[in-house]
């Protein structure tokens, strides 16, 4: 979905989830069965959302995508959302002790990006699409990386060069930004990242490296 409609969609979903007292972590729980992640979508600098994720989110609230692409869409009330979601919010969610903590540990995008760059990346400059598809599911479904906060803050420089997609002919499309690391990743950052990832999920990449060596 392009940036214009992504912004409208994300803005409407944020307003709706806040009105229903649904956190981003809880959104992740609701989307986990589809191997999708919502956390971080609202904080992206250049907000974009995939059609698959937008469709699943819309379905959660009993609407189609078009409903949330209207700037003036009416918020769905708790009484009007699907019964399955009502049941989850009223009965199941209160029994989840700390969904945010467990999900942050399981789905720490920044940590997995750092481990990928440290041990598996061989490129001097890279775009987000050079990293994300190689991460464990469901992180490989994401479309962007926030390089400005958390563990990733200060690690890379925007080269102001772009990776073009030959399938996009719109002249307004500049392409994906290429980044370069600002030197070796500090040991303390790597240590923090290692505590937040499951290295077993990198097994396919490890096996691939072995075959290529």
Structural class: mainly alpha
Number of strands: 3
- Biggest β-sheet: count, sense, barrel? 3 strands, antiparallel
SSE arrangement, N to C: HHHHHHEEEHH
Shape: globular
Widest β-sheet, arrangement of strands:
1-3-2
Beta fraction: 5-15%
Number of domains: 2
Unreliable runs, pLDDT <50, ≥5 residues? 97-105
Q: What's the assembly state of these chains?
A: single chain
Counted by DSSP, the helix tally is 8
Name the features.
single chain; 213 residues; mainly alpha; 434 Repressor (Amino-terminal Domain); 2 domains; 3-stranded antiparallel beta sheet; 8% strand
Task: Walk me through the structure.
The chain is mostly helical. It has 2 domains: 3-95, Orthogonal Bundle (434 Repressor (Amino-terminal Domain)), CATH 1.10.260; 109-211, no CATH class. It is built from 8 helices and 3 strands, in the order H-H-H-H-H-H-E-E-E-H-H. A 3-stranded antiparallel β-sheet has the order 1-3-2, with no helix packed on it. Helix 2 packs across helix 5 (99-106) and helix 6 (109-119) packs across helix 7 (187-194). The longest helix has 17 residues, at 3-19. The chain is globular. Mean pLDDT is 85; it is low at 97-105.
